[in-house]
Amino acid sequence: MILDIISKKANKYELTREELETIFMGYLNDEVKDYQMSAFLMAICINDMSDSEVFALTDIFIKSGDVLDLSFIDGVKVDKHSTGGVGDKTTLIVAPLVASCGVPVIKMSGRGLGYTGGTIDKLESIPGFIVNLSEEEITKQAKDIGIVITSQTKDLAPLDKKVYALRDVTATTNSIPLIASSIMSKKIAGGADKIVIDIKVGSGALLKTQEEAERLSSLLIKIGTYYQKEVRTVISNMDVPLGYNVGNKLEVLEAIEVLKGNEQGKLLDLSLDLATKMVSLGKGITEKEALKEVKGNLESGKALNKFLEFVKYQHGDVNNLSIDAKVYNIKANKSGVLKDINALAIAKLSESLGAGRKSKEDKIDYNAGVVIRKNIGDEIKEGDVLASLYTNIENPTFNLDKAFEIS
Ligand code: URA
Fold first, then answer.
1. Mutation to probe ligand 1, out of 62, 81, 83 (largest number of atoms < 8 A from CB)
2. Which CA distances in Å does 253 have to 71, 243, 301, 356?
3. In the predicted model, is pLDDT for residue 113 greater than 60?
């Protein structure tokens, strides 16, 4: 039976919901082996999935675990997701910004596996910050201050988690139907009413071309429509890291600077765009009206105050965010114009300094990371500092040419 299902997909036939359920639930229950699921996932990568197969798979992922009910919290709950990027600390900026506009943000976030930490790792780098909240605590905090970011209380879409771990090691991560069902199952299981998704495209992202990003966008919107959950997407570039800081505590510090109005550029622009879409969805107003409100709350300091209120409520101390690590400055070995800052190379570097984890058990050094000191297009003189490395590892190694292109 399992072999028939694999060969049906390999021969480009559409699968029924029952067939998808047999193989995927069989995998969750350890009846289908890793090698069988690997062959099947590769057949999907090569031969794609129809819309009805994607809807069925999303449903199977959702029903493999718990589904949160956030209806006890007043207002439209809008969630945000990013397909993953280097230096992406937008949640730390966007969540308080949106909450300061009166749209509740109740976000279950994850730890990172791979080159950089996830939102929960970033928040945990704030001394005292508590990420494991009970359902009672989440409810009380949501009612009191309208913003909660916590690690998952329930087992949301466990089948996606198991399949994703296999995709990661079998070169099957970049299948658009698999990405779409993976993201949407988690967001729907997380109880969101409406969803904003940041699709990253570029050398440091899962998707490399605009066409792929557009196809993912339309599929995410279709799945949303199927579940009566409005979805809006942003397609954003990930050829270069987002902002200047990569690494957990360093990213919190940068997010605070953006909230203080001290940093302009792509990180601010993307944060405003995501927040605008969330506020527009949450309040049922136009994006023009939402942008005005979002910008107003950033400029007046309301968003920063909401961030500080949120961190304090979860017992964090932002007055104690100094970086406890050695600093190594990376200097340009020639003069010229800075042509490229390679996101993937910076991510790998940051991980090698201690900011990411290779396996679930690895401990993160919250102080580790990279601060980029120059912008693309800058005139560089030999000896100029391109980046500062923060680490507790002695004499870190670094391949300059992989990360910075000067010509
Ligand atoms: N993010 C997800 O949650 N799942 C994917 O498959 C890709 C990005």
1. 83
2. 34, 11, 16, 17
3. no
